[in-house]
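Please decode residue identities from the backbone states below.
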């Protein structure tokens, strides 16, 4: 497979990952998160990332087989000599965009987790201040008179 074909395939797969990351971001930013939809996106994203990794491994193998150095320098040189430097640059830009979106989504998840933690702490605190005991009788509250005696 030619380098230009591999790069275009990577771009298509990156576009799919980017689309899923954007959908994920929208769900995470919504007031009421749809857990099932979020799980489905995560599953699709995992499959696409595996496909992308397979294409990237093939591209690196072709690069190495053609005698270019490993890493970004060799990849750039291979793309330049194959006349597809624009495709290589486009692939890199899509990779950077996917990375930014993934980082932002991770931050949104962190914010959601913080919100959930604070909500749970509030619920636990409120439960400890319940005005009724297990027997259904009013409990004594700090700073209040116990009228159930």
């Amino acid at each position: 497979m030619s380098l230009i074909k591999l790069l275009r395939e990577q771009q298509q797969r990156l576009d799919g990952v980017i689309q899923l990351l954007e959908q994920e971001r929208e769900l995470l930013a919504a007031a009421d998160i749809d857990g099932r939809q979020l799980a489905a996106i995560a599953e699709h994203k995992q499959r696409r990332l595996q496909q992308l990794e397979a294409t990237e491994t093939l591209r690196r193998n072709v690069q190495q087989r053609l005698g270019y150095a490993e890493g970004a320098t060799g990849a750039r040189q291979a793309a330049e000599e194959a006349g597809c430097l624009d495709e290589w640059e486009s692939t890199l830009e899509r990779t950077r965009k996917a990375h930014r979106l993934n980082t932002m989504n991770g931050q949104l998840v962190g914010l959601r987790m913080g919100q959930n933690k604070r909500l749970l702490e509030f619920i636990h605190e409120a439960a400890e201040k319940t005005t009724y005991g297990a027997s259904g009788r009013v409990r004594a509250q700090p700073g209040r008179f116990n009228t159930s005696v």
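Observation: The helical segments are 3-29, 35-65, 71-81, 85-128.
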